Amino acid sequence: MSFFEKYLKGWQFRANRPTLETGSEIDVFVAETNGTSGRAYIGDTELVIDGAGPETVEKQVRVRVTEFDETTATGRGELLEIVGESSYSG
Fold first, then answer.
1. Residues 6+ away with beta carbon under 8 Å from 38
2. What is the secondary structure of 39-69 as a DSSP string?
3. pTM of the entire structure?
């Protein structure tokens, strides 16, 4: 094994379309809302968040994934709580 192969051993690239498992809880930033549900983007994956109103935009929230379609990289989740603020809001 060459030095280069040893150096890169275990490295992997992150997917730009990550998959989400139904029932899992994740923390995401809400990008936008229509008043009753918000949208978060994780790479090219889009997650619609039920219950994420205007007060959650640019906030970090915890979401429980309720459904996910790997083919289209889209899913739905339910808002559990606001857990943080964006460093860009202000």
1. 30, 31, 32, 48, 49, 52, 53, 56, 57, 61, 79
2. EEEETTEEEEEET--GGGBTEEEEEEEEEEE
3. 0.79
Please answer whether residues 47 and 65 qualify as being in contact, where contact means their C-beta atoms are separated by less than 8 angstroms. Answer: yes
Residue type, 61: V
Provide DSSP, 16-46.
Answer: SS----TT-EEEEEB-EE-SSEEEEEETTEE
Full pLDDT tens readout for the chain, 90 residues: 787 777 777 776 666 788 899 999 999 999 999 999 999 999 899 999 999 999 999 999 999 999 999 999 999 999 999 999 876 655
